[in-house]
Design a protein that fits this description.
By secondary structure, the chain is α+β, with helices and mostly antiparallel strands. The protein has helices at 17-23, 61-65, 113-125, 129-132, 140-154, 165-178, 213-219, 227-235, and strands at residues 2-3, 6-11, 28-29, 34-43, 46-52, 72-79, 97-99, 102-108, 184-189, 194-199, 203-208, 238-243, 259-264, 268-272, 278-280. A hairpin with a 4-residue loop joins strand 9 (184-189) and strand 10 (194-199). The protein is globular. The protein starts with a strand and ends with a strand.
Length: 281
């Protein structure tokens, strides 16, 4: 299995989203040195965020994330040797991050304190005050996320979160490219679309065309104990982006039934549309 530090999920049945994560348990796992995790979901236009400062030993990725509340979710895992912002910001500096109707997992970037601080100041320098007030911690990754929203505002797309996927992808690509050469990745959502941009970090995308009744029964027997429940498993559709991998996934990796894997180049960008179609940018 390959350790995953950032994950994005879009699906047509949020109640069964956690089953999708269990389906991928044979190829994707928590990194061995994971020590914190956070999940953000967009529900009714609001970004709901949960963070855990610890990760249980021997826990799987799906067990640690748990039930999902919306059709779009992003997950970010912190590892022990990751650069930690100094100051009293505490959990607010742990990803993922949220603002308005948007949420993002951001990993990578400068790995020395001075470089991260300087990059954070540059990223926030041109951010308007109404977006700067969403900054809750001192993480450089949060500043990158807010800078993407500021660029989206410049493009005229910030106030249209249900119809701005192309502009959101453009903003993310431009800000990541301008932020410097340090490897990094951002996975962000507006609640109906998902954008994944990587620079110098391996990632992959998995498409799920159905869910296994056996897996669903292990997760929650009520999900497969009726004809309607089994039909919902057959009709499930989902797209999962896997980023910040501690080793590249291989195209021939064993996959669950009705699942396909696409290994992405180390520098890649894609948009998952509301109909779950994938557009490589």
């Amino acid at each position: 299995m390959v350790g995953v530090r950032a994950l994005g999920l879009m699906c047509n049945d949020p109640q069964r989203g956690v089953v999708a994560l269990h389906e991928l348990g044979g190829i994707a796992s928590l990194p061995a040195d994971a020590d914190a995790i956070g999940t953000a979901c967009i529900v009714d236009g609001a970004a709901l965020l949960s963070r855990s400062p610890t990760v249980a030993t021997e826990s799987s990725l799906a067990q640690t994330v748990g039930p999902l509340q919306g059709r779009c979710a992003v997950v970010q895992v912190r590892v022990r040797d990751e650069l930690r912002p100094t100051g009293p910001s505490g959990a607010a500096s742990q990803g993922p991050f949220r603002a308005r109707s948007y949420a993002a997992a951001v990993i990578g970037g400068p790995q020395d304190a001075d470089g991260a601080s300087a990059s954070r100041e540059r990223l926030l320098a041109g951010v308007p005050d109404f977006l700067r007030r969403f900054v809750g911690g001192h993480a450089e990754g949060e500043a990158l996320f807010i800078a993407i929203l500021a660029r989206l505002h410049d493009l005229g797309g910030l106030e249209s979160p249900h119809d701005n996927g192309g502009k959101l992808a453009q903003a993310a690509r431009e800000v990541v490219a301008a932020a410097g050469s340090a490897p990094r990745q951002v996975t962000l959502t507006n609640g109906v679309e998902l954008v994944h941009v990587a620079m110098g970090l391996p990632s992959a995308v998995v498409v799920l065309a159905a869910l296994s009744e056996a897996t669903a029964t292990r997760v929650d027997p009520t999900l497969a104990d009726s004809s309607m429940g089994r039909e919902r498993l057959r009709r499930f559709r989902g797209v999962v982006t896997l980023g910040g991998l501690d080793a590249p996934l291989k195209a021939g990796a064993p996959m669950p039934d009705k699942a396909t894997l696409q290994v992405l180049p180390d520098s890649a960008a894609l948009l998952v549309a509301r109909d779950l179609s994938i557009r490589v940018l």
